[in-house]
Amino acid sequence: MNGKIDYKKDFKTLYMPKTAPEIVDVPSIPFFTLSGSGDPNREAFAEETAALYSLSYAVKMSYKSDNVPAGYYEYTVFPLEGVWDLLDRSKPATDKSNLKYKIMIRQPDFLTEPMFERFLEQTKKKKPNPFLGQVRFERISDGLSCQMMHLGSFDDEPQSFARMETFCEEQGFIRTSLLHREIYLSDPRRVEPAKMKTVLRFPVRKS
Fold first, then answer.
1. In the chain, how many domains are there?
2. What is the CATH number of the domain that holds 16?
3. What is the mean pLDDT of residues 44-49?
4. 207, CA 20 to 30 Å: which among 108, 118, 144, 149?
5. Phi and psi dihedrals of 183, rounded to 5?
6. Secondary structure, 3-state, the chain
7. What pLDDT, on the 0 to 100 scale, is given for residue 1?
8. In this predicted model, what pLDDT tens digit does every residue of 137-187 receive, in sequence order?
9. Is residue 2, in this structure, part of any structural domain at all?
10. How many other CB atoms are found less than 10 A from the CB of residue 77?
């Protein structure tokens, strides 16, 4: 593979959608994943995220090691993603302590299960993190989905989801799950809420 892979250019359909709803078919993708629950503003969530990033950067920087992975190519580390659900559906979605999630970072296609085990052990030694032992390497396929780019605060996402559901009704699609995926293209510590970019996506089927 020639040239550096940049998800914003080479996987533009999945990571840089328009600000209007659209239907896409998402293939099977390799991820490092970590499951949890509770308010994402708590310290534990930050540590979970750090575990995913430290492992992801270990893979990216492995070209400097004595054991470069077969098929290695240069690439930009993919953004953090999360699939969100509720622990108790009788409670409102605004209750962040009631959230259930699987956060993840996409990995390059050359990564294998044995490589994952190797990088996991290396990272545990170099950057100890209590959540590294919970990280999994798995392939996930969203399949047929509705998605759009949400501009603004996380608290304003319900408006975008409403647009997506209206679009699906008009185009003859039905949302098949209350779960949804978010892809975080902005760092909330550095970008003001009004300018944040988040890809929103949920599974659908033709009605």
1. 1
2. 3.20.80.10
3. 96
4. 149
5. -120, 120
6. CCCCECHHHHCHHHHCCCCCCEEEEEEEEEEEEEEEECCCCCHHHHHHHHHHHHHHHHHHHHHHCCCCCCCCCCECCCCEEEEEEECCCCCCCCCHHHEEEEEEEECCCCCCHHHHHHHHHHHHHHCCCCCHHHCEEEEEEEEEEEEEEEECCHHHHHHHHHHHHHHHHHHCEEECCCCEEEEECCCCCCCCHHHCEEEEEEEEEEC
7. 47
8. 999 999 999 999 999 999 999 999 999 999 999 999 999 999 999 999 998
9. no
10. 16
* Residue closest to 21 by CA, chosen among 165, 151, 119: 165
Q: Which amino acid is at 120?
A: L
Q: Is residue 1 part of a domain?
A: no
Taking the C-alpha atoms of residue 34 and residue 30, their distance in angstroms, rounded to an integer, is: 13
Scanning the structure block, which residue is given the tokens 């949400």? 150
Q: Tell me the mean pLDDT in the region 9-16.
A: 97
Structural domain span for residue 137 = 7-206
Specify if 61 maps to a domain.
yes
Confidence of residue 2 (pLDDT cuts 50, 70, 90): low
Distance CA 149, CA 178 (A): 19
- In terms of phi and psi (left: phi > 0; alpha: psi -120 to 50; beta: otherwise), the region of 170 is alpha
Mean pLDDT of 18-34: 98
Q: What is the pTM of this model?
A: 0.95
Nearest to 104 by CA among 33, 185, 200: 33
